[in-house]
Amino acid sequence: MIKHWINGKPWESAPSRAGDVYDPTTGKVASQVAFASVSEVDAAVSAAAEAFASWRNASLAQRSSVMFKFRELFSARKDELARLVSSEHGKVVSDAAGEIQRALESVEYACGIPQLLKGGFSENASTRVDVYSIQQPVGVVGVISPFNFPAMVPLWFVPTAIACGNTVVLKPSEKDPSASVFLAELFAEAGLPDGVLNVVHGDKVAVDRILEHPVVKAISFVGSTPIARYVYETGTAAGKRVQALGGAKNHMVVLPDADLDLAADAAVSAGFGSAGERCMAISVVVAVGEVGDSLVDRIKSRIADVQVGSGASCEMGPLVTGVHRDKVTSYLDAGVAAGAVLAVDGRDHPIDGDDGGFWLGPTLFDHVGTDMSIYTDEIFGPVLSVVRCDTYESAVELVNSNRYGNGTAIFTNDGGAARRFQNEIEVGMVGVNVPIPVPVAYYSFGGWKESLFGDAHAYGPHGVHFFTRSKVVTSRWLDPSHGGVNLGFPQNT
């Protein structure tokens, strides 16, 4: 049984409810996870609230010391964590290792918290009056993370939140919950005080209690757009600060002058990595002008070589659950019925070591219309659609008219076209000959339109801003004070 982590240790009480955790490669139940009741969520929030009273006053030196130690432990055990993520999510180990390496960047950014929390200072703003700004922690914050990145997404938020002086209640996906407990154990080993980071598992019961709990001051969420909207509306109605990152339908625009081999490589890599279960996956290739047939042929040839299975040499694993696999598969029939050309049927793709898991190979549709469900819906699986446009202008209009605005990319050798595209496109993250433009940790991650609810992106400078409140102090001191003589070299503690 995978247990909650509350107040620095596993929660020992027997759960009233539990859920199955599957091995996606076999389709069999591998373990069970406890589902939190309202009282168990309350226990986690109470532990976080009690810890906040002292953690908020911990020095920046202490907080950064914990972060550096966590980074050291995390780096030493990242291979173990990659295997754990792979076993529950289904992504191949090499893909999980890439997720963890990107997560490490967010940890390293949080290690610099003393620099990140420097305020402004104006000496003698008025006669003998100084004015300065400080950033203080928000309080107890809730983090609700999705199944597709069980290590990386929690680490988008948790290190920054606790480095800023907050305490956290983390609710990971019940589909692959073990990574969050693994991280909590590492933080405890790094010296994080009990109660600063708590992990509760479960479903809507746990989510709703976090959203409505009066002690929780802020919510960070990543998931589908309907749930992101619900989290944002429910959390803000309860007076909380909320950042809710939603779904996506990411387009990759290929201009006639592009290197088509590079574009085909990118489309397959970004479309089918992690079985398409990425919010930054490319799900639509926009072929501009006469490149369509040639580009589709190149993509098809590369799909044929993709190794799908559970073997060490495989590049793509199964989907996370049978229910999700069946939902994704239903779009194949829907696309054909709507009139799209099923250029590659993933149901026919060979599987290495198929033991009854949740498998679906890479799928390619051509001549997709914008009114088809395979275009309008976020499928979240290995399904790539090709839409054809006559001109650059019509391609930009296509992307900008989509209700999502998470990520997009353009492939071209024309610098002027690329610069025009990055200016005109109404999307939060843009790649130029880069298919998955996930920002490095010292920038921030987030989309536009229905891909983001709230005004703060994840991690980076936006993360520090979200997890702190600004305060301006106006000060007048008429007499100096002395603390006594100490000839020792001053130490930072």
Shape: globular
- Structural class designation: alpha/beta
Number of helices: 16
Q: Quick one: biggest sheet?
A: 7 strands, mixed
Q: How much helicity do the residues have? A: 25-40%
Percent strand: 15-25%
Strand order of the largest sheet: 15-17-18-13-12-20-21
Low-confidence stretches: none
Number of strands: 24
Give the C-alpha Rg: 24 Å
Mean pLDDT across residues: 97
Distance between the termini: 40 Å
Write up this protein.
By secondary structure, the protein is of the alpha/beta class. It has helices at 38-55, 60-76, 78-89, 93-111, 113-116, 152-163, 178-189, 204-212, 225-237, 260-272, 292-304, 322-338, 373-376, 392-401, 415-424, 460-466, and strands at residues 5-6, 9-10, 17-23, 28-35, 121-126, 129-137, 140-144, 167-171, 197-199, 216-222, 241-245, 250-254, 282-288, 308-309, 341-344, 351-352, 363-366, 383-389, 404-405, 407-411, 429-432, 448-449, 452-453, 468-476. The strands form seven sheets. It has a seven-stranded mixed beta sheet, with helices on both faces. A six-stranded mixed beta sheet has the order 9-8-7-10-11-23, sandwiched between helices. The model has no long low-confidence stretch (mean pLDDT 97).
Write the layout of secondary structure elements.
Elements: E1 5-6, E2 9-10, E3 17-23, E4 28-35, H1 38-55, H2 60-76, H3 78-89, H4 93-111, H5 113-116, E5 121-126, E6 129-137, E7 140-144, H6 152-163, E8 167-171, H7 178-189, E9 197-199, H8 204-212, E10 216-222, H9 225-237, E11 241-245, E12 250-254, H10 260-272, E13 282-288, H11 292-304, E14 308-309, H12 322-338, E15 341-344, E16 351-352, E17 363-366, H13 373-376, E18 383-389, H14 392-401, E19 404-405, E20 407-411, H15 415-424, E21 429-432, E22 448-449, E23 452-453, H16 460-466, E24 468-476
Parallel strand pairs: 7-8, 7-10, 8-9, 10-11, 12-13, 12-20, 13-18, 14-16, 17-18, 20-21
Antiparallel strand pairs: 1-2, 3-4, 5-6, 6-24, 11-23, 15-17, 19-22
Helix pairs in contact: 1-8, 2-4, 2-7, 3-4, 4-6, 10-11
